[in-house]
Amino acid sequence: MRVGFIGVGAMGGPMARHVAQGGFLQAVWNRTEEKSLALARDLNVTCAPSPAALASQVDVVLLCVSADRDVLEVIHSLLPEIRQSSIVIDFSTVSSVTARQAAELLRARGAEFLDSPVTGGVEGAHNGTLVMMVGGQLSVLEKVLPILQTMSRRIVYMGDVGAGQATKAVNQVMAAGINQAVTEALAFGEKLGLDMQKAIDVISGGAAGNWFLEKRGSTMLEGIFSPGFKVALHHKDLKICREMAKHLGMALPLVEMTVEDYEKLIAGGFGNEDISALYRIKKDP
Amino acid sequence: MRVGFIGVGAMGGPMARHVAQGGFLQAVWNRTEEKSLALARDLNVTCAPSPAALASQVDVVLLCVSADRDVLEVIHSLLPEIRQSSIVIDFSTVSSVTARQAAELLRARGAEFLDSPVTGGVEGAHNGTLVMMVGGQLSVLEKVLPILQTMSRRIVYMGDVGAGQATKAVNQVMAAGINQAVTEALAFGEKLGLDMQKAIDVISGGAAGNWFLEKRGSTMLEGIFSPGFKVALHHKDLKICREMAKHLGMALPLVEMTVEDYEKLIAGGFGNEDISALYRIKKDP
What we know:
2 copies of one chain form a homodimer. Chain A has helices at residues 12-21, 33-43, 51-56, 68-78, 96-107, 121-127, 138-148, 163-191, 196-204, 211-221, 231-247, 253-267, 278-283; strands spanning 3-6, 25-29, 46-47, 60-63, 87-90, 112-115, 118-119, 130-135, 152-159. By secondary structure, the first copy, chain A, is α/β, with parallel strands linked by helices.
């Protein structure tokens, strides 16, 4: 299978490198051409002049961009040249609705689509240890498994098109709530004058224990907010969740609260910090 | 050291049993006398007729009751008979202010006080695996360590009187937030029509992973809310946290939200269910 990779930024770049090391990568394309040129030279693959040109020469198109609009733009621009029975796999975090739209556009041209958002962040992309949550046809996933395995330590089939994005959305909602929980509790503890290192330690071992407390608790108390996972990106994801919930006629109070807090952080110039920067607001509202 | 135990309910009962097995227990007292009578007979110790009578015959008084008022009531009633250099250790979850009041009352009579709230719940009390967060004088803690070790797998010295309660308060705030995070995210996922067992599994392995999701995620989806940790008790603890925050001039938005939700649950007759019953509200607000 010949593979093309569209969107070789902070996540897509290292992911494409793993696909190349697996012997699958044929071509790359990126909106900012310097990135794709440098990577293509480095990996000894083609730097395609357009998404269409890339799609015309591969069997599998991998996609890692930022927003819903970017995904649909790329799909539209590669449609005229997409080959019969090609497979497009989208790693971006977007809405289930966008995933279903992309799948329909491609199906009309005889091509397949999988939504496969990831968790594990930039470190996971570099180390090839991303977790992938996949929606689409299982038979299609089975065909591309060897490609995905170059980038991922865990690939979970969630169901029909959109189910990958839905799972990622649930994950992002939970991450927002846990960020609220940990930052509020630690700000409270600090105001109480506790030895916070001891407090983190003892709380981690009990029923309130969580990954975020263990990994980000100490750094947030020291005022270190290097990402990690950027406020601006989580903000974008939570707005997608909010839209999805609106379609379901459902309220997500923690998400509302967190979107508002993140907007304060972004306005204050902290959008590129780790999401644990929410501690700034909890400490000093 | 001769030890007396006041308050032998769901927590105190099994805790007293461990102290007896360690060879320290001399007497018990309980507001509802049937409980202390049965336990005293079972453990072959004295069933004291009053807190004062109990205090008069031991070196160390252990205390495990429900609310701030109960703690102060017991302290007042044992004060006339407390022995010089006695040590009172309170396992109840109450406010730091109450802990400091208790310590002052006892100090005036030449006795010592430690606040030592616990985590680990009824299972931890039965298995002798509670975690204890201790405030007071370290030299006093060192004296009673062999007694505490009969009930606990981990004893952490947090600082001056009240520091144990402050740590427990931070833990309860975090637990409230995580309950909000997990129930909101899982209700969202279920509305999205996801295979929730798979979703819990994949989310548990990532940056949103937490104890509560792993232990209570599946049961809440099945509508099983057997405690665990009762809504009514967490509600009581969160009202203590709210008071403490008020003294600090600090807002705890997650705590406000959770107190309100718990009050709905209690009004609906669900106060004796596990705190994961918050899922009822998230699913059907």
